[in-house]
């Protein structure tokens, strides 16, 4: 899968509210905040199922009510359409 050009990445991020390019980690990232740990963990469970179905897995961390997600196609060396597609699916899950 080809890495997105800077213009393609910029266009994709414009359609994904709150996602930003993380140059240091060569991916797209977003923090999600929930009411409590249970809501954050439920969100992570739904994302995990979508990620497994897409065979594309996020880098993420969870501290209490916060979930930080980074998407990058490591074997391609950067952000690809797979990352954008999973970010869209994550946005749908987050509601």
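Q: What amino acid sequence fits the structure above?
A:
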């Amino acid at each position: 899968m080809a890495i997105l050009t800077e213009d393609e990445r910029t266009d994709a991020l414009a359609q994904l509210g709150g996602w930003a390019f993380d140059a240091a980690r060569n991916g797209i990232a977003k923090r999600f905040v929930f009411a409590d740990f249970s809501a954050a963990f439920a969100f992570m469970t739904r994302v995990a199922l979508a990620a497994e179905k897409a065979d594309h897995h996020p880098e993420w961390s969870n501290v209490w009510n916060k979930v930080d997600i980074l998407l990058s196609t490591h074997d391609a060396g950067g952000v690809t359409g797979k990352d954008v597609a999973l970010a869209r699916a994550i946005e749908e899950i987050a509601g």
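Q: And what stands out in the fold?
A: Residues 37-54 form the longest helix (18 residues).
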